[in-house]
Amino acid sequence: MTIPAAADRIAALDLVRGAAVLGILAINIASFAGGPTAPLSPRLSGSASPADELAFVIGLVLFEGKMRGLFTLLFGASLLLLVDRRDATGDDGARWQARRLGWLLVIGYCHQLFLWNGDILMIYALIAPLALAMRHLSGKAMLTAAFVLFTLWHGSLTLIGWSSFAAAEAAHAGTTSPQQLADLARGAAASSGQLARDLAVLRLPYGEMLGERLVQTFFQPLLVTLITFGETLPLMLVGMALYRSGLLSGAWPSARIARMGLAALAIGLPLALAQAWWAWSRDFPPEAMFFLLVGAAGPQHLALTLAWLALLVWAAPLLAGTWAGRRLTAAGRMALSNYLLTSLVMTGIFHGWGLGLIGTVGPAEQWLFVILGWTIMLGWSAPWLARFRQGPAEWVWRSLTERRVLPLKQ
Question: What does pTM read for this prediction?
Fold first, then answer.
């Protein structure tokens, strides 16, 4: 199948984005199948089999934080890429990008409200203007600002959650104090209660679920944006700096890309394995897991995000003419459509308005649905682009941004 080339696309960027949109499903599937708190622990809903725990840990090491990191990094690179191109034509790239982000906020809000309460698009739309305001910095200054904010943010969240780590450690060693026992019981009760409330809402018929979600959808994106600010903005800046450096456009020699990837892997993988072992051996305590994922795991998330990026950019020329490369690149060109379609398919399978399987599928079996999602994304993207210029969601977004109906057919 021949997909017409797009002159304004960077093939390596699309391929990496395609891998990221597939990979992020490997983490999001836990929320689709078990509710918003399910990614914290495979044991929230009761006992988990060894296979469930192993599947959870594999996701923790390979995908958690890394695919979201890739998505965010690429979003930052695209922000700068598109502004530069607009400015080069004499247009006001920053004003055009602001309009584009405004419509992304609307799309993300609709996604959050009508489909799935794990949307990331609104977070990007709210934080991206800050990244754009820093676009005139040098690449070195961008990386320095990103490193400082990332370190301070994740260090602060780690310190805030330190008591939960200490309580989990004491429980493992059998030395818990009365206060720690009370804290652990309180955390377990809060997590179980939240899970029960979430599942009850997601099992409702669609109209009732929508009514329950209206108030939550108004406030939750702001809260999530505040929690993830110190991850999202730094990663956007890193993406902008790497775009400026030429990494995504083929300016780096393969040896340099390989060195970056190996260095990042050497830093990130031991940390990821150590933290996964700690969590597994302490029975995935939910409160400690929350602060681990938003705080202490930050360095390994960043390192392994860069390792994934280096691997995919290094492999892009080798994959360019292969079936896998063409399919990944097509999926990346339609990343927004695939992201939204995944939510439609998975909520249709798991939520009460669809097949109602939520809360019944453990982490090991969830991989069957991940494979289903990957098959759909890889299966439809290339045939669609053989006939149309853009994915359907991309076309709507671009048409709204340009304030005119753009041609869709090839």
Answer: 0.94
Alpha helices per DSSP H over 35-90: 50-62, 66-88
Q: Which two tokens stand for residue 23?
A: 């990979």
Check residue 362 and give its pLDDT.
93
Please give the Cα distance from 75 to 63 (Å, whole number): 18
Whole-angstrom distance, CA of residue 76 vs CA of residue 140: 15
The angle at the Cα of 181, spanning 179 to 184, to the nearest 5 degrees, equals 110
Q: How far apart are CA 48 and CA 388, in angstroms?
A: 45
Angle at 336 between CA 332 and CA 341, to 5 degrees: 105
242 close to 74: Cβ distance less than 8 angstroms: no
Low-confidence ranges of the chain (pLDDT < 70): 1-8, 216-218
Residue spans of the domains in the chain: they are 11-323+340-377
The encoded tokens of residue 331 equal: 């999926």
Torsion of CA 90, 124, 369, 31, to 10 degrees: -170
> In angstroms, what is the C-alpha Rg of the chain?
21
Q: pLDDT tens digit string along 13-24?
A: 999 999 999 999
- What is the structure's pLDDT at 355? 97
For residues 271 and 173, the answer to whether their CB atoms sit within 8 Å is no
